[in-house]
Every structure is written in structure tokens, then in C-alpha cells.
Specification:
This protein has about 260 residues and is α/β, with parallel strands linked by helices. The protein has two domains: about 5-95 and about 180-250, Rossmann fold, CATH 3.40.50.1000; about 105-175, Alpha-Beta Plaits. The chain has eight helices and eleven strands. The chain has helices at about 5-10, 40-50, 65-70, 105-120, 145-160, 185-195, 210-215, 240-250; strands at about 15-20, 55-60, 80-85, 90, 125-130, 135, 165-170, 175, 200-205, 220-225, 235. Strands 4-3-2-1-9-10-11 form a seven-stranded mixed sheet, with helices on both faces. A four-stranded antiparallel sheet has the order 5-6-8-7, covered by helices on one side. Helix 1 packs parallel to helix 8 (about 240-250), helix 2 runs parallel beside helix 8 and helix 4 (about 105-120) packs antiparallel against helix 5. The two termini are about 30 Å apart.
Amino acid sequence: MTPDDAVARLARTPRLLVALDFDGTLAPLVDDPMTARMLPEARAAVEAIAAAPATTVALVSGRTIRDLRIIAEHGDDSPLLLAGSHGAQEWPAAASDDGADAEERPFIETVTERAESLAASLDGAWIEPKEFGFALHTRLVTDAAGAKGLEAAVDTLVSEAAPGWRRRVGRDILEFSSRHDGKDAAVARLRERTDATAVLFAGDDVTDEDALRSLRPGDLGVRVGAGESAASVRVADIPELAALLVRLAHGRAPEPE
């Protein structure tokens, strides 16, 4: 099926959910994660599809809700739904967690601090604290062997201190979380919440494949960029995804009288 055929089919569904990863899908990957912002054409496309009839747009990200709202420039009046921490958090809040509870927080902070001590030994590596764990970033590391050694050390730390935490691997990132929620569960909850008759999900990384594999007949999975994927449609980059979303928005526009 060509992208145009897929878009035309999806445009006819009665209630559509458009669920989008953020980093690498709408915003370029950057060295400082908090400086990430949607490309202008991506923002325009998101606004266009969000304004289409019987259509809901959601951002589904590994970021915490707090950070996702900052980088997405998401205000309280935004029509966009959010699923953060790989689905363990939602905005507006629904059945999922708002954050780690008072008993869990000290343990998460202790393990994160131990990981920070390990990362301090390698130039360019750093730890990003998360709501339910942490992420090790190695995008700026020039010593490939050192990065592998650090990842192994962090793996050992978590396997001994928090063996029940979920491990995720992305592009130059290794993430651990006390929550096992995945983007597949996030999309399922959003589908139910919005009564969607079909779903478009787009993502660019390994952590998006859970959601792509979970899609049903009649849905559309879109992979942004290279890499093995369960998606039925592939686009080269963010601008190409934006163009697809604009075509979809036009397809869902009411016919002129």
C-alpha cells in the first residue's frame, strides 16, 4: 500500500486518533534534550490534523509529562492529549500514575545518584533523571569502548539494585524504569478514551515498535527514518511525515457545499 492510499483509507474512518512520538518524529534529536522543539512544518501539520473533524491528536513519549509539556510548548488550553513516561503518565490525568509516590521516590533517587557517579567517569556521558527511573545518554561520547563499558556497569548496577525495573534501549540512550508501561498500552488506552475507530501511530526509534506492533487492521503505522520496523509505511524524515499529516488533514476536511 502506498502512503497516499493509506492516508486516503484512514481519512474515511469515523473517529481518528493520531498518536505521535516526539523526539526524532516531530522534533530533531539534539544534544540537550530540553532544547528539542518541533520543526515549524511539523507544528503546522499537528495543528492542521488536530483541527480536523472527529480527530484527536496525542503525543506519546518517553519524556515525563512535565518535560514533554515544556518541549512541546503545550498549554492548558491545548487540544493535544499527552502520554508521558512511555504511557505511565497522562495529561489530562486519567487512570495512570501522576508520578512516583513518597515511598518510592527516595529509592529511585538513590539508584539514579549511583548511576550518575558511574557516568561521571566518562566524558560526554550523562544521566537524565526520570519520574520512575533514569536514562543514560551517550550521544556525546567519542570513546565507543568506554560507552559500552559504562552501559555494562549501569546494567550491573540496576540488575543488582532494582532487578524489577524495565530496560529500554534507544538511539544513544539506555533507560531504566520502575514502571513497565509501554507505548502499546498507552495507545490502547488512548484508543479507548477517544472511541477511535482507527489509529495512526508514528515513531522513529526502537521504543516505538511496541506501539507499531500493537496496531490493528485498519490502523496505520508510520516509521520515520531508517531501521527495521513493523510499520506499514515509511517516511524519510520529519518534513515527509508532516506532509503526510497535512494530506490526512485535508482528507478529513468537510466537502465544500
